[in-house]
Amino acid sequence: DVKVTQSSRYLVKRTGEKVFLECVQDMDHENMFWYRQDPGLGLRLIYFSYDVKMKEKGDIPEGYSVSREKKERFSLILESASTNQTSMYLCASSPPDRGLVGAFFGQGTRLTVV
Amino acid sequence: SQKIEQNSEALNIQEGKTATLTCNYTNYSPAYLQWYRQDPGRGPVFLLLIRENEKEKRKERLKVTFDTTLKQSLFHITASQPADSATYLCAVNSGGSNYKLTFGKGTLLTVNP
After folding, report:
1. Is B99–A48 a contact, with Cβ atoms under 8 angstroms apart?
2. pLDDT digits (tens, 9 = 90+) for A36-49
3. Contact flag B31-A99 (C-beta cutoff 8 Å)
4. Which of A10, A67, A75, B30 is deepest in the core (most CB within 10 A)?
5. Which residue on chain A is closest to B105 by alpha carbon?
6. Which of A19, A31, A14 lies closest to A71 in space, CA to CA?
7. Is there a contact between A104 and B46 if contact means CB atoms under 8 Å apart?
8. Minimal Cα–Cα distance from A36 to chain B, Å?
9. CB distance A58–B100 less than 8 Å?
10. pLDDT in tens, A46-93
11. Which residues, 6 or more positions from A4, have their beta carbon under 8 angstroms from its beta carbon?
């Protein structure tokens, strides 16, 4: 079974802190994604990566950065956490033949910024 | 950029009936369209994918159609069960890149016993 593992299920951070959300997949997938999900707004793409060290902005990249130094790991960084970044964060990965099997999601990290 | 609209926020049906969920997109026809199921507090789970040159796809009690003229996909669950209650999301590749996956806001389906 494909596994996408996010480092934390719940996280509470203070305003202004630098926050790292880690995601690891075990299926050698080329593509990895970070989304945030908020009530009424659905899943919104923050950043995605289609190869090691490659990244592209999604729809809401402001206030975030990402790092992909190894194929299996995709990190989301909140440079200076703010309360409006309180959300459910979801990581996903998909194989290169992305049209066949869809994306596999992690269990999510519920981040609260106080 | 591509906009995905799932017309109903919520849908309630009786057990045994067929649930039909709608997904509309606004711009260019995507190469493929996907459907996911999401349970509360969990990540979405991939269900089905349909390509732009396919009209219909089936998997057990699930059926997906893709009408590029109407810019619409329909997702059907036949003989629905209370265990089918969940939020269903559609997603398309967008932004001119096959990598970028954009989701609709989802439809919360409740199947009443």
Report:
1. yes
2. 999 888 899 999 99
3. yes
4. B30
5. A42
6. A31
7. yes
8. 11
9. yes
10. 999 988 989 999 999 999 999 999 999 999 999 999 999 999 999 999
11. A23, A24, A25, A91, A92, A93, A104, A105, A106, B43
Whether residue B105 and residue A42 make contact (CB cut-off 8 A), yes or no, is yes
Range B74-104 burial, b when 16+ CB lie within 10 A, else e: bbbbeebeeebbbbbbbbbbbbeebbbbbbb
Closest residue of B to A57, CA-based? Answer: B100
> Would you give per-residue pLDDT tens digits along chain B (113 residues)?
678 899 778 999 999 999 999 999 887 777 788 999 999 989 999 999 998 888 899 999 999 999 988 999 999 999 999 999 999 999 987 655 567 788 999 999 999 99
